[in-house]
Design a protein that fits this description.
12 helices; binds nicotinamide-adenine-dinucleotide; globular; alpha/beta; 10-stranded mixed beta sheet
């Protein structure tokens, strides 16, 4: 199979972690007989330096011409980088927002799973962490409160600010279908999260999710109120398979879920539209504090590449091979600095390695 992959290395640790993901993809391509053809795309601070803007029309066209885009991270240190003296719509992050919009990426997938080897980093009680968990949060990304009309006005000396939360049937249905498709490839359970006891938008959300669920008889559909979900994520995360939710609830819950795994350097993500196209990137940022030192953890980017194999190219065996190689390397004791045992934890068999070494180890085991 021939796959055209747009590559946004970006800023900070971006180029270092993307290089390792490409290394792993090359190993997979060699083993399974696929040709991964890469096109470099400029976005973020490096694009500002080269072109004056965080995303050019040419970069958007190159992303659209790709089958999928693999991204590192963008942005710099807000306190010291000259990029942050620019107006907000000219800063590195504006490039990513513009790209998501241009590609109509409405479904954001954030897996959160706990590796047994890293259970000590999990802030949950040992008995809860010990049960393990493996969930995917599917967050609606282009509608809801963050995209509704907003205004701030002063009437009779009193300032009032208003934001609007609205969802159409179409917006709900397309993201719900995505969640059920994903659940049918996993443990076959969708928990849809809303605030249907208060919000009209949530009542419509629940109705449409039920309609979509009727088309997936082998996938269990449960509804949960968002405040309860926030509690359940720390009380009993093992109950979740796919969590489906709207934009703002998903923003908050996906950060909560990522923190219970213990390490940002381990968490991949994907943003999908209604075709096979997706943008795949680690959940963390450009980590300017460790950029250029060769110590960043590339696993989130490598696992993002595995998601690309699974969701954009339907290469499930190849995605499994990458995920199993990551598990094997962790089981063998390889650790980058961010996932090293904390003081007092056992260090027997632990090998402290840098970005390249762990990338080599994973690609050798694919
Ligand atoms: P960050 O995620 O970059 O860093 C937070 C902490 O986590 C730092 O101590 C960093 O060293 C560590 N960290 C992050 N990724 C790591 C990895 N792979 N391996 C080891 N340690 C890692 O968050 P921040 O400092 O708030 O943001 C830095 C820049 O990244 C900002 O400009 C921000 O806007 C940008 N950012 C970009 C994206 C993106 O590209 N999608 C997402 C979040 C933040």
């Amino acid at each position: 199979m021939e796959c055209h992959i747009g590559v946004i290395s970006g800023d900070g640790i971006g180029p270092e972690i993307v290089a390792e993901a490409k290394k792993v993809l090359t190993a997979v391509g060699k083993k399974y007989g696929h040709d991964f053809i890469y096109t470099d795309i400029l976005m973020g601070g490096c694009s500002i330096d080269a072109t004056g803007v965080p995303l050019t029309d040419q970069a958007i066209a190159a992303a659209k011409a790709s089958d999928a885009v693999l991204m590192g991270s963008i942005g710099g240190d807000a306190a010291t980088s000259p990029w942050y003296r620019l107006p907000p719509d000219k800063r590195p992050e504006a490039g990513l927002l513009a790209l998501r919009k241009a590609l109509n990426l409405f479904a954001n997938l954030r897996p959160a799973s706990l590796y047994p080897e890293l259970a000590a980093a999990c802030p949950l009680r040992a008995d809860v962490a010990g049960a393990g968990f493996d969930m995917v949060i599917v967050r609606e990304l282009t509608g809801g409160l963050y995209f509704g009309a907003r205004k701030t006005e002063e009437v009779d000396g009193v300032v009032t600010a208003t934001d609007t939360l609205s969802y159409s049937e179409t917006e709900i249905r397309r993201v719900a279908k995505r969640a059920f498709d994903i659940a049918s490839k996993r443990r076959k359970k969708v928990t849809s999260v809303d605030k249907a006891n208060v919000l009209d938008s949530s009542r419509l959300w629940r109705k449409i999710v039920d309609e979509v669920a009727a088309g997936y008889p082998d996938v269990e559909c449960a509804h949960m109120l968002v405040d309860n979900c926030a509690m359940q994520l720390v009380k009993d995360p093992a109950q979740f398979d796919v969590v489906l939710t709207e934009n703002m609830f998903g923003d908050i819950l996906s950060d909560e879920a990522s923190m219970v795994t213990g390490s940002i350097g381990m968490l991949p993500s994907a943003s999908l539209n209604d075709t096979k196209f997706g943008l795949y990137e680690p959940s963390g940022g450009s980590a300017p504090d460790i950029a250029g030192k060769g110590i960043a953890n590339p696993i989130a980017t490598i696992l993002s590449a595995a998601m690309m194999l699974r969701y954009s190219f339907d290469l499930d065996a190849e995605a499994d091979a990458v995920e199993n190689a990551v598990k094997a390397v962790l089981a063998e004791g390889y650790r980058t600095i961010d996932i090293m045992p904390r003081p007092g934890e056992p260090t027997d068999g632990i090998k402290k390695v840098g970005t390249k070494e762990i990338g080599d180890a994973i690609s050798e085991r694919c």
